[in-house]
From TrEMBL:
Belongs to the binding-protein-dependent transport system permease family. CysTW subfamily. This is Phosphate transport system permease protein PstA. It is found in: Cell inner membrane; Cell membrane. The chain crosses the membrane at residues 33-55, 92-112, 132-152, 158-175, 207-227, 233-254, 261-278, 284-309.
Length: 319
C-alpha cells in the first residue's frame, strides 16, 4: 500500500518538475538570445563608428597619400611636407623596442609559468606584472625621463625612446606569453616526460613550439600599441620638426654596422601628426589626416598579420 502511494506521488510530482525544467530552459535560452543580441549590436555599432571615422580620415588625407608624401621631409609649406623623418624614426624606435622588450618578456613569461616556485614572492611579481600592463603610458614616460635621461644621461635620443616603449611593451609580452603557455594541454608535457625528456627539452621543443602562435600574436599587438603611443615619446623629448635622417645602421665600411643612430634626435608619426594639427592652415590638417590614416593602416596590418600567423601556426601544429 505504501508502495502504491509513493508511486502515485511520483507520478503527480514528475510532470510538474519536468514542466518547471522546460520553463527554466526556455527562460535561459531567451536570456542568452537577449544577451547575444545586445553584444552583437554593441560590436556592430562600435565597428561602424570606427569604419565611418576611418573612411572620413582617409577621404580627408587621400590627396596627400602618394609617393612624395613618404619621401619628403617636413616643411613649413604644407604642399611640400612629408613624413620621411617620422616613419624612419618610428621604424628605428620600433627596432630598439623589439630588441629590448621581446627577448626579456618571453623569457620572463616562460620562467614565471614553467620554472618559478609557487610562493608569496612569485605571487607579488605576477600581480605587479599584471598591474603594469594597465598603467597609463604617460607614467612610463615620466619614469624614462627620470631614469634614462637624467640618471643614465642617455639624452633625448632614439635609444631613450626605444627603451621607454620597451618598458611599456614588456608587461604586455609577459602576460601574453604566459596566457599562450597556459593554453597548452598538460597531456603534451606528460607525454614528453614519459619518453624521458628533461624539463628544458619539454619547454623548448613542446611548450614554446605549441604556444608560439599566441606568443607571436601578443608581440605584434604590443608593437602595434607602441607604434601609436605619443605621451611617453613627448615626455622623453621627441622633436616636432626634424628635417634630417639619423645615420644609417648599416655602412659600407667594416664592421658594416653603425650605432651612431642610437644617439640621434628623432620624431615619430604620432608627433608629426600632432604638430600638423596644431597649425591653423587647413592644408596642414590634410597632411595630419594622411599621417593618421598611415598609422591606422599600419596598426590594422600588424593586427591582421598577428591573426593570420596565429591561424597558420595553429593549423600546421599536429596535436
Amino acid at each position: 500500500m505504501m508502495k502504491k502511494n509513493s508511486v502515485s506521488e511520483e507520478s503527480l510530482i514528475k510532470p510538474k518538475t519536468l514542466e518547471e525544467v522546460r520553463v527554466m530552459i526556455r527562460a535561459h535560452k531567451r536570456n542568452d538570445f537577449i544577451f547575444s543580441s545586445i553584444g552583437l549590436l554593441t560590436i556592430t555599432f562600435a565597428l561602424l563608428t570606427l569604419l565611418i571615422l576611418f573612411v572620413d580620415l582617409v577621404m580627408d588625407g587621400y590627396p596627400k597619400l602618394n609617393y612624395q608624401f613618404f619621401t619628403d621631409f617636413p616643411s613649413r609649406r604644407a604642399a611640400n611636407a612629408g613624413i620621411l623623418s617620422a616613419w624612419v624614426g618610428s621604424s628605428l624606435i620600433m627596432l630598439v623596442t623589439f630588441i629590448t622588450a621581446v627577448p626579456m618578456g618571453v623569457a620572463a613569461g616562460v620562467y614565471l609559468e614553467e620554472y618559478a616556485p609557487k610562493n608569496w614572492l612569485t605571487d607579488i611579481v605576477e600581480i605587479n606584472v599584471t598591474n603594469l600592463a594597465g598603467v597609463p603610458s604617460i607614467i612610463y614616460g615620466l619614469l624614462a625621463l627620470g631614469l634614462f635621461v637624467y640618471t643614465f644621461h642617455l639624452g633625448q635620443t632614439i635609444v631613450t625612446a626605444g627603451l621607454t616603449l620597451g618598458l611599456l611593451m614588456l608587461p604586455i609580452v609577459i602576460v601574453s606569453t604566459r596566457e599562450a603557455i597556459r593554453s597548452i594541454p598538460v597531456a603534451i608535457r606528460e607525454a614528453a616526460y614519459a619518453v624521458g625528456a628533461t624539463k628544458w627539452q619539454v619547454v623548448l621543443h613542446h611548450v614554446i613550439q605549441y604556444s608560439f602562435g599566441g606568443i607571436l600574436t601578443g608581440i605584434i599587438i604590443g608593437m602595434a600599441r607602441a607604434l601609436g603611443e605619443t605621451a611617453p615619446i613627448i615626455t622623453v623629448g621627441a622633436l616636432t620638426f626634424i628635417a634630417f635622417l639619423p645615420p644609417a645602421p648599416l655602412t659600407s665600411v667594416a664592421p658594416f654596422i653603425s650605432f651612431e643612430w642610437l644617439q640621434s634626435g628623432f620624431t615619430v608619426l604620432p608627433i608629426q601628426m600632432f604638430s600638423w594639427l596644431s597649425r591653423p592652415e587647413h592644408a596642414f590638417h590634410i597632411n595630419a589626416a594622411a599621417a593618421g590614416a598611415v598609422i591606422i593602416i599600419l596598426t590594422l596590418v600588424m593586427n591582421g598579420t598577428a591573426i593570420w600567423l596565429r591561424y597558420r601556426i595553429r593549423k600546421n601544429i599536429k596535436w
